[in-house]
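Researcher: Quick test of sequence recovery. Tokens follow.
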């Protein structure tokens, strides 16, 4: 006979809200959700996520594709949208009795959202929440001002050793208390196998945002059609089928059908499946350049934004490199062609250098990977997030 109190004895589901803003954050979030669900099935995940986290089991309150912004000016244009959404997420957290909020990267929005939640908690308009910043804002690039805000978080978890060193050194000098930064290794080490074998194709990675893809194609199409590389085979990987729309938009604007260029192939396959066919990559700066470095594939990193965004970045950002692989190594392993340097002429020059140096770069990448910890990083992060 069924006990009438069975329903009362069932363990109450723990509810976690995840806030990320772009594809790299969604990827990281999906990994920790998968690992946490292996250890505890009695958790419900909700949040602002993308397809990968949804597949991992997160119920989407909003999709990250609605957050598609690139640069300072575009972010300002969407200020009202983000303000409205922050209040909607707050209401959802309150109504669903969420216990933990995990913020993943996307500092411009997430720090403001955190402040809103904290204010409501202090006013007793919201229950107390455990608030975790996983992959916090890049204070080593933007300056130490944001460290003061991060002190108010319950937990801060970074994924690079140089970040941990930066925080620890900054906090020692400041003699401040209340912020302990955790580092367990880099989660991508669990996901990508290293290989020193190189194929014959050149991998093209245009990015995931519409503006990035258009700016990338405007230069790369000229490169591919250049007589000097007519015998090369190019393989362009797009994030998903929806991005074919950007290719069609490009055709309409520039009267060039990218899909019909003879020495160019388009793929939607995962990079780990096509890596063996490639000898190096030309990639828009982003998390993907770090991912492929862990697989042992050399990269020429490119990036172009609007003149005003570039001006602001050059006067605010305080770093020598924009590529995570270079930052972690504290030297230039990957050539970075930014703004006016992202040109056909510069690319042809760097491609010539790459052909001579690619095997040496692979050896450098192997050394850099060894700095990032051994397999089992995600398990450690999941255990830490579940222990409280």
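Model:
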């Amino acid at each position: 006979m069924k006990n009438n109190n069975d329903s009362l004895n069932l363990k109450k589901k723990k509810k976690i809200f995840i806030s990320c803003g772009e594809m790299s954050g969604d990827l990281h979030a999906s990994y920790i959700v998968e690992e946490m669900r292996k250890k505890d099935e009695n958790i419900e995940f909700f949040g602002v996520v993308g397809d990968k986290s949804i597949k991992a089991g997160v119920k989407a309150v909003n999709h990250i594709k609605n957050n598609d912004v690139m640069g300072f000016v575009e972010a300002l244009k969407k200020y009202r949208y983000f303000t409205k959404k922050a209040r909607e997420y707050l209401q959802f957290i309150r109504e669903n009795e969420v216990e933990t909020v995990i913020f993943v990267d996307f500092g411009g929005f997430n720090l403001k959202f955190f402040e809103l939640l904290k204010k409501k908690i202090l006013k007793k308009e919201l229950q107390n929440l455990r608030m975790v910043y996983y992959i916090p804002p890049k204070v080593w690039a933007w300056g130490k001002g944001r460290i003061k805000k991060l002190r108010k978080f319950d937990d801060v978890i970074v994924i690079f050793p140089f970040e941990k060193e930066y925080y620890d050194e900054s906090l020692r000098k400041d003699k401040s208390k209340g912020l302990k930064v955790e580092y367990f290794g880099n989660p991508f080490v669990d996901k990508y196998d290293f290989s020193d074998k190189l194929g014959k194709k050149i991998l093209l990675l245009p990015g995931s945002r519409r503006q990035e893809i258009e700016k990338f194609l405007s230069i790369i199409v000229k490169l591919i059609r250049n007589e000097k590389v007519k015998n090369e085979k190019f393989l362009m990987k797009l994030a998903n089928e929806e991005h074919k729309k950007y290719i069609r938009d490009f055709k309409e604007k520039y009267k060039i059908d990218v899909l019909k260029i003879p020495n160019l192939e388009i793929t939607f396959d995962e990079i780990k499946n096509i890596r063996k066919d490639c000898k190096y990559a030309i990639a828009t700066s982003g998390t993907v350049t770090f991912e492929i470095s862990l697989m042992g594939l050399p990269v020429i990193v490119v990036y172009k934004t609007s003149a005003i965004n570039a001006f602001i970045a050059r006067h605010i950002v305080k770093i020598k490199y924009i590529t995570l692989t270079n930052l972690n190594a504290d030297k230039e392993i990957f050539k970075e062609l930014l703004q006016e340097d992202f040109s056909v002429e510069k690319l042809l020059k760097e491609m010539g250098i790459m052909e001579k140096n690619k095997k040496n770069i692979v050896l450098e990448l192997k050394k850099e990977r060894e700095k990032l910890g051994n397999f089992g990083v995600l398990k450690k992060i999941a255990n830490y997030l579940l222990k409280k």
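The chain has 17 helices and 13 strands.
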